[in-house]
Amino acid sequence: MSKSILCAVDLGNAETDNRVLVQAAKLAEQDGAQLDVVTVLPDFGESWVSGFFEEHHHEKAVKETSIRLREVCEQAVGAERNVKIRHLVATGTAYQEILKTAKTAKSDLIVIGAHKPDLQDYLLGPNAARVVRHSSCSVFVVR
């Protein structure tokens, strides 16, 4: 049976991302598991907000985020390890997309970061909590 670990990162917090990625890579290495790394973009396409963006905003955002995700992963785990990672960019609500990605990838473990919530970190706390509460696989929370 092949094992799969899904690491969820929020590219807006480099310090936490680095700790989460390093821990996820260690866990994947220990178990000989495939490491998948996902980040989630908000979905502005179906709201009134979408009218404020250029026509191909979403495609451009996904492309730029994918490049940034690869860079962040390489900085955290090195170039050699990074080429073995599946980099995923999802669009929607963070916790829902993380759970959906884990189900699709048949992940055995989700690694996610959490830190003391304050105003700038407000959204991460509830997302991590929801992933823990609703996941069908184990969740490793990095503080």
TrEMBL record:
The record ties this protein, via SUPFAM superfamilies, to: Adenine nucleotide alpha hydrolases-like
**UniProt xrefs under Gene3D superfamilies:** HUPs
Q: Which domain of life is it from?
A: Bacteria
Q: What is this protein called?
A: Universal stress protein
- So what family is this one in? Belongs to the universal stress protein A family.
Cellular component GO terms, alphabetical? cytoplasm
Where does this protein reside within or beyond the cell? Answer: Cytoplasm
| Matches recorded under CDD domains | USP-like
In this chain the UspA domain maps to 1-143
Q: What are the UniProt keywords, alphabetically?
A: Cytoplasm
